[in-house]
Structure formats: C-alpha cells, structure tokens
Amino acid sequence: METTTFIKRDGKVQFLGKTLDFILQMLRNGTYTVVIKKKSERRSISQNSLMWMWFTAIADATGDTRDNVHDGYCAMFLPKNVSFRGLNITVPGETKHLTTAEFTDFLNKVQADAQTELGIVLPSPDDLIYEEFYQTYKNRI
Q1: 126: burial class by Cβ within 10 Å (0-12, 13-18, 19+)?
Q2: What are phi and psi of 10, to 5 degrees?
Q3: In angstroms, rounded to a whole number, what is the distance separating the alpha carbons of residues 32 and 36?
Q4: Are 104 and 41 in contact (CB under 8 A)?
Q5: CA distance 43 to 62
C-alpha cells in the first residue's frame, strides 16, 4: 500500500512526500481504490493540562481524588463497550486517543456538568478569571 501526505492551503495542494503522480506511476497494472482521509491531531498538551487542573479543582471541591474525577467523567462521556466472556460490558473510555476536536468536546461536557451539577465554575483559558485559576492549580497537575 502506498501513502502520501499533502496539505491544501489557499486552494493549492502541497505534497509532503512522494507526489501522487509518482505513486500512481509506480503501481502495477490493476484496479485500485483511492481513499482520502483528513488527518486529525491528537489532544494537545495544553488541553491535557487544563483537564487535570479542572479535575484537581473538582476533587478539591468534592473531597474526591482527581483520578476518580477523571474516571467518572470518562465513564459518563466516553463510555466504551467491550465484550468479555460473552458479556457486553460498558467501561470508561480513555482521553489519550482523542483528537483535539474530540477532546474539546469532552472538556466542554465536563465544564457544563461541573457548573450545572456541582456548581463549580471551571474557567477556560480565554476567561478573565483564568489567570487566577491557573496560578492556583498550575503546580498541582
């Protein structure tokens, strides 16, 4: 299987490896299927840091551990169905495989739940109160 990576900007295609023309010329005779899939980025370090600051704040407010907060929200918002010994079981999913967009969605759900269910305000980096929040929790992640 041959692959190549390209970027499209301002209506122009820029290849980051072998060109499509080169790849097509190198193929043996036959019938082929071409699949174009948009590349997605994994969660960012800053997203991960924000998540752990939020989970620490929730743990402080609820008396729970931040790992339990993490597992609880993963169970709520990232449930994963597995088959074990013929049983279908739902277990918490993981955040480490999420794309940046999926992780943003997860964080938005956590933020909304903390506000509505627990009365805890979790500021985003663009909020005015974020700097104070960051100074409080930056060394605890």
Answers
A1: exposed
A2: 55, 35
A3: 13
A4: no
A5: 27
**Cα–Cα distance, 108 to 5 (Å, whole number):** 31
pLDDT by 10s per residue, the chain, length 141: 666 677 777 877 776 666 667 777 777 888 878 777 766 566 667 888 999 999 999 999 999 999 999 999 999 999 989 898 989 998 888 888 888 889 999 999 999 999 999 999 999 888 888 888 989 988 887
Type of residue found at 82 = V
H or E stretch covering 81: strand 79-84
Closest listed residue to residue 104, CA positions, set 62, 60, 59, 41: 41
Angle, CA of 134, 135 and 141, to the nearest 5°: 65
**Domains of the chain: which residue ranges?**
45-140
Instruction: Tally Cβ neighbours within 10 Å of residue 110.
Output: 23
In the chain, what is the straight-line distance between the N-terminal and C-terminal CA atoms, in Å?
A: 42
5: left (phi over 0), alpha (psi -120 to 50) or beta: beta
